[in-house]
Amino acid sequence: HFQSLVQLEKKTKGKLQKQICQVVLEHFEKQYTAELGDAWSSVRDVLTSPWCWQHALLLNRFSWSPGLESSLAEQGYQPAFPAALPYLPAAFRCYSRPAPGRFPAQKHQPGRLKDYYLLNAASLLPVLALEVEHGEDVLDLCAAPGGKAVAILQCACPGHFHCNEYDDLRSRWLEQTIESFIPDPLINLIRVSKLDGRQIGDLQPEFYDKVLVDAPCSNDRSWLFSADPQQALLRLMQRKELSSLQFQLLRSAVKALRPGGSLVYSTCTLSKAENSDVINLVLNSCRNVMPVDISGMARGVSQEFSFLSGMQQHELLVLPERGRAWGPMYVAKLKKVSST
């Protein structure tokens, strides 16, 4: 059995080694050496070694599978988040293990709910930072493929839950995810739309208590394995335009928030231009927005995740490292203080 694992790793290594896109790697090399300093080389090591990537399982509270948790424990899985967090609802159960590899995925079967969602554990941090409570009106502005929406519904039952996805194909993927995880009566609370997220603030001003902006971004992990170098080059050239889109989505989110409401912004890139720079632009241009301290959550999960040091209290950046190969994931939290 061990022999076959070694062979599989060799095969995987061989297959994946070839696929690293040099154009992207060179671009990242330049930018991230400047932005992350010494931290970049260990991050690069993980991002370019898919055989050491890890996967977590978010259990679905709407579909109880007897024996799943004990079978996970037998395979070395443990709760991914410590109980001492500022916000961790009892129904929110996520498991991970230090060993790389992934648990088998469940196929989509119409009329049957899935028991778990496979994900990068860091992608749950924006949801835990958002702290959704029962009965709140919630907007997930860029919701596909739907993992964070599913996670929000593990935490609480919103009064109204609006999941938006502008892209047609991704929107279908979102609908399928919701169908696979959420039972009928609850599905009626969820509105799925295909609006331009930049316009929702004007269409529904001051309507939501909580907004998640999991923005379109440079997906560092997948870009490194772009199969088409031409497409990769095009992406790198268009990368500068992303921060302007992200800023417009955030401005729309602020408009959509009620005074006193809060928003969480997240990306899966290490890029400062799409992370801190965008948040600083919002803080400098919207007088009615304040940063919210999330350092308590960051401290609470510091055993499970590795963070870039020197960040502000309202933000964090998860850096993948061996044995904790989660991320990249940037998270920032803001609060709307008044209408203007």
From TrEMBL:
Gene3D superfamilies: 6.20.240.40, Vaccinia Virus protein VP39 (3.40.50.150). SUPFAM superfamilies: S-adenosyl-L-methionine-dependent methyltransferases. One of its GO terms (biological process) is rRNA methylation. Its main location: mitochondrion. GO terms for molecular function: RNA binding; RNA methyltransferase activity. Keywords: Methyltransferase, Mitochondrion, RNA-binding, S-adenosyl-L-methionine, Transferase. It is found in: Mitochondrion. The active site is at 268 (nucleophile). S-adenosyl-L-methionine binds at residues 142-148, 165, 196, 214. Residues 45-337 form the SAM-dependent MTase RsmB/NOP-type domain. It comes from the Eukaryota. It holds the Pfam family Methyltr_RsmB-F. One of its GO terms (cellular component) is mitochondrial large ribosomal subunit. Belongs to the class I-like SAM-binding methyltransferase superfamily. RsmB/NOP family. This is NOP2/Sun RNA methyltransferase 3. The lineage of its organism: Eukaryota, Metazoa, Chordata, Craniata, Vertebrata. The gene is NSUN3.
